[in-house]
Amino acid sequence: MAEPWWRTGPQDIHRLEDRISSLYAERCHIDRDDNAIVLVNKARTVHVPAAWLAVLLVGPGSRITHPAVTLLADSGTAVCWVGEHGVRLYAAGTGTARGSQLQLRQAWLVTRPKERVAVARRMYEMRFTGEDTTGLTLQQLRGREGTRVRRLYAEHSARTGVPWVKRDYKPGDAFAAGDDVNRLLSAANSALYGISHAAITGLGASPALGFVHTGNALSFVMDIADLYKAEYTIPLAFDLAAQGLTSERDARTAFRDAVVKGKLLPRIVTDIKRLLVREGTELSDEDLGALWDDGDTVVSSGRNWSAADHLDIIPEPEPEPEPEPEPEPDERHGSGDEEAAS
Amino acid sequence: MSAGTTVVVLVAAPAGLRGHLTRWFTEVAAGVYVGNPNPRIRDRLWNVVADRIHDGQAVMIEPATNEQGWTARTAGRDRWSPVDFDGLTLIARPRQGGRPWRPTAETK
User: Fold this and answer.
1) CA torsion angle for A229, A235, A238, A242 (degrees, to 10)?
2) How is A31-76 classified by DSSP, letter by letter?
3) A147 interfaces chain B, CB cutoff of 8 Å
4) Across residues A306-327, what is the average pLDDT?
5) Set of chain B residues whose Cβ sits within 8 Å of the Cβ of A23
6) Does the reported pTM lie above 0.85?
7) Neighboring chain B residues of A65 at a CB cutoff of 8 Å
8) Which residues on chain A are in Cβ contact (under 8 Å) with B66?
9) Among candidates B86, B39, B10, B104, which has minimal Cα distance to A194?
10) What is the greatest pairwise CA distance in chain B?
11) What's residue B8's pLDDT?
12) CA-to-CA distance for A53 and A76, rounded, in angstroms?
């Protein structure tokens, strides 16, 4: 079947850093209508500029159809189901990334202790601007981070006059526990996790491969979100509590304004790239769609390598300057890959 | 389009109002006006438009310092109206009362 005409390529959709951060939709029917994403309720329909959106947050009382999800995935929009009880399911379509180079690089860094420590150190250093952290061990950096956060709470408490006892939250149910400041902080952090997650999957990195955090499917999301809490969610929670604005919606709205003002989304994108890719190197995001050959070479997929005279399923492009490595006749590559790559 | 561009769209507007707007804007297609008036002029023109649109519809898209980069004003009868999603403006179209939702065929 031919590709439908509305199918997008990587050139057609907004880069992640140029997108609107998030849209929250609840109590509505999310559907596809004439190739548009629409939110429908009894009174009206609203069209959503999906290809211009980093993440769609689906709240309680919503339902979403298969065609709508198809279109969201094609737009490179992430979808995150957020509930009244904080259970989140996150789905990313193809993202804006098409290649796997960034994720391979992240896996390489995270599995080598020396490289991993170097990245974790850089993450801490980003939070202690102007302080000298050379020679500190990871434990010392962790300790210093704890002190820094405690001092932040105390400072903002003094600034706004909102009393602060301790950080209090219930894992998995962000808005359940603690006093107003704690609940606002949890709600704003939840939105911060959402856009961090969207940025990570959108760039093609892995949310699970964390450097400071480990062992959780969202370790890297927490790593990245922690870089911005001091600047964004902590002051915001105290400010809102001081003004008597204590609903989850207040936290979301104020957080969006802060994200816009601080241009946070492009900053997250550059920070992720800077942490994973060495300065000055360009990581290509080409969809190679290849098969791995032993060593550092790849062979083209979409072809049956089982016989000496292979059957071309995908016609060869124009001859390239360097010929592809010919496989040894006795090697068996991709015997299960006779199907044409989609 | 430069950052300061304003667009006005009029539907079923009285001829006098359409002519009036062409003194500030270029009419690029029937009822579509493009120009660069400053905020003060925009406010004053909008008052005139909202006053005289009667049974037609009018919308003015103007630059703003929000995430989208623009805001919308609307006037008239049975019009599509802006809805705020936590600081993001989308446009809602009124639905025919009471009929169940049916999406159109998937691809066109």
Assistant:
1) -160
2) EEETTEEEEE-SSEEEEE-GGGEEEEEE-TT-EE-HHHHHHHHHTT
3) no
4) 54
5) 85-86, 88, 90
6) no
7) 103
8) 260
9) B86
10) 46
11) 95
12) 9
